[in-house]
Each structure stands twice: as C-alpha cells, then as structure tokens.
C-alpha cells in the first residue's frame, strides 16, 4: 500500500450536480496531483497542489477546482457534472514542487459515474 | 509535441513466456524522466521504475527489465517468464523537466497484458 487514501471509492451523481472527492497524501508528502482516467485511456493531468496553492493545471475547465489543506490532504471539486466526467479520478502524492521528478504514489481512485 | 505512445493495446501470452511492452515518447526537453506504472483491477497505479534522460543504462529488477534508448526515443519494458499475477494494465509515462512543467505526468494509453495459465 502507498499510504495515499481516497474517498469515496465509488460515487454515482446526476448530470448538473456537484461532487467533492477527497485525498489523504502519504505522510511527509507536500504535493498532491489529480488525474482523470476515462475508461480504456491513460490518466490525464487535472492539476497539482503544492503547499496549499495550485501549482500547475492541465486542459480542464474551471468547473474543476481543488483545495489543499495545511495537512496536505486535498479535495477535487467538480461543478455542473457532465456525462463525460464519468471516470476514475486518481490522486497522487509526492515530495516537492517538481513532482514528476520524484516517485509519485497513487491512491486507488474514486470511480465517478454521472447519469 | 510532448506525448507517449504505447502502440500495443492488448497483449495475451501464456504463462512463462517473455513479453515486451513498447513505449515511444516525444519531448523537446533535454531533461526528462520516464516511468512505468502497473494498474491492477483495483485501480491503484503501482510505481515500477523511474529513469532520467541522462541515464541510459538498462535496468533489471527480478523478472523485470527496462531498455532505454534515446536514439529511438523508446523505453521498453520486458517481463521474463511471465506469471498470471502480471496480468494488468501497464502505463508508460513522461515527465518533461522544462520550466513550464511543475507536476504533469504524461501517460500513454496503456497496454493491457493478459497472462494465461
């Protein structure tokens, strides 16, 4: 186990609703990244948080937003859900702002289904 | 463009066969890192290896080995004597270390490996 925990594990929402996904990073890690993985695809980078600030963002609309807390845990919020938002959402924790230059530990993900 | 291509969508082998998963990458950065991750049905991405662009030495870890060739922009992964427990989706990923990139790992589409008993 990596020590990265995500909740909930599964979620079903209706189109137009809002959702909050949570991630607890591995002890000692100060960076959290979020990825969206559609079925049969590779993960796509949503954004990264370092020391409570957004530190990089992929090609996702503003209705995808996040937070990082002083204990480095993080939330991903998605407003106005669309059917295409159905995916596995993965959280990764690492140490340092150049997160990709070190090993990133992933959680088991939250499977979001939008109906 | 910065991208990772895993041309093999699915591979099926019989237990004890050797199998190679291909990965080709593109980046304009001279410093970058390459990764392989394993994703079992549980969904968690399991880290296998990280290599930087200045270290082309091949690596072996048990039944796993990696062949990094900058000349062909490839970072291939070989499993020797495959086992049923190796069945999973494998992802190759790239981290370009340019100043504009702070956290983005670029993943390939993944290769689904099925090892039959």
3D shape of chain B? globular
| Greatest interface by residues involved | A-B, 33 and 26 residues
Number of DSSP strands of chain A? 11
The rounded Rg of chain B comes to: 14 Å
* String of helices and strands of chain A: EEEEEEEEEEE
What is the rounded Rg of chain A?
13 Å
Assign a percent range to the helix content of chain B: under 10%
Which consecutive residue ranges of chain A, at least 5 long each, have pLDDT under 50? none
Largest sheet of chain A: 7 strands, mixed
Instruction: Report the sheet with the most strands of chain B, covering strand number, pairing sense and barrel closure.
Output: 6 strands, mixed
What is the H-and-E element order of chain B? EEEEEEEEEEEE
* Number of H- or I-type helical stretches of chain A: 0
Query: Low-confidence segments of chain B, ≥5 residues, pLDDT <50?
Result: none
Distance between the termini of chain A: 32 Å
Oligomer, anyone? heterodimer
Assign a percent range to the helix content of chain A: under 10%
Number of helices of chain B: 0
The total of beta strands of chain B comes to: 12
Overall pLDDT of chain A? 92
The share of residues in extended strands of chain B comes to over 45%
Distance between the termini of chain B: 40 Å
